[in-house]
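Lecture 7, part 2: worked example. A protein chain together with hexanoyl-coenzyme A.
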Amino acid sequence: MFDGKGKHVLVAGGTSGINLGIAEGFAKTGATVSVFSRSQDKVDAAVEKLIAHGTQAWGGTADVRDPDAVQAVLQGAVDANGPIDVLVSGAAGNFPAPALGMSSNAFGSVVGIDLLGSFHVLRFAFEHLNKPGASIINISAPQAWLPMALQSHVCAAKAGVDMLTKTLALEWGPMGVRVNSLVPGPIKDTEGMDRLLVDKSKAGELIKTVPLQRMGTVEDCADVALFLASDYARYVSGAILPVDGGWSLAGAQIAMSHAMMGS
Ligand code: HXC
Ligand code: NAP
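Predicted complex, written out as structure tokens:
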């Protein structure tokens, strides 16, 4: 589907969970993959995993909230692997908390990572994109359009990410750059689900709210990322594409809120 040979894929926040699964999906196609996040240990482990797929990989550290650090890490990736063909922006933070239980810094930390961080990554990567033909994939969440209790910060931030997808698809389309959002649903064995499903005994109830009757996997997300980056998606830009088994269609937010609260 996606031929990675000779392509450079950069995954921001690509050192664990869904984003690392996406990075591995690209590595398996023969693409050269760069990843970065805050923790050097996570970066080292991710690079080792990527290299095990038989491709070239590079890793660096940066906090996406810091524009200078983002510019430096992008330069490092480009110096190592050349212009970027596919950019995946997935760094994110989450914790369940009521609005009344959050300080300004708490709300701002999630908006800072998810939304401002995405802006930094896309804004400063643009000059390094292999244009025309480059593809950008923002990793969003159903919270972008499903209001969820205990998730006011994430809902606001991810709604912003999806609007960034749409506005930059408008601005950058004429320069041959496609911008789309990939929206994972409940994905098993991830930090995000571990944090949100406070009462683990409710996992069965959660699965009943998914039309396809199972949690997703990181491979489900990786396959759709490969599609979005491929020539099969050459006329797809500004799309918000759920990879959620139909979970966000109806009622899921109420069930999820109950699961999170353990009720
Ligand atoms: C209220 C909280 C809190 C909580 C932290 N804070 N946890 N407030 N309830 N449970 C507050 C802190 O007290 C602090 O405010 C502020 O948030 C910042 O906390 P720090 O720990 O200093 O921030 P930082 O080190 O920058 O870490 C950011 C983080 C952290 C978001 C808080 O959890 C993180 O690094 N997360 C990255 C990994 C992650 O979350 N992965 C899941 C992504 S899943 P004060 O006022 O005390 O200074 C996802 C969607 C899943 O995004 C969707 C599933 C369907
Ligand atoms: P995860 O494993 O915690 O992934 C988050 C990644 O972002 C990590 O590599 C983390 O590494 C990095 N990161 C966090 N804060 C950062 C910062 N300030 N600067 C740079 N990198 C940072 O979580 P996940 O559950 O797989 O989620 C991955 C993506 O999928 C997120 O965008 C999330 O919103 C989305 N999503 C997840 C689910 C789900 O079911 N899990 C559902 C919907 C959407 P460091 O800690 O080293 O920085």
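The chain is about 45% helix and 15% strand. Residues 92-95, 97, 101-103, 105-106, 109-110, 141, 154, 186, 191-193, 195-196 surround hexanoyl-coenzyme A (ligand 1) (CB under 6 Å). Keep this in mind for problem set question 3.
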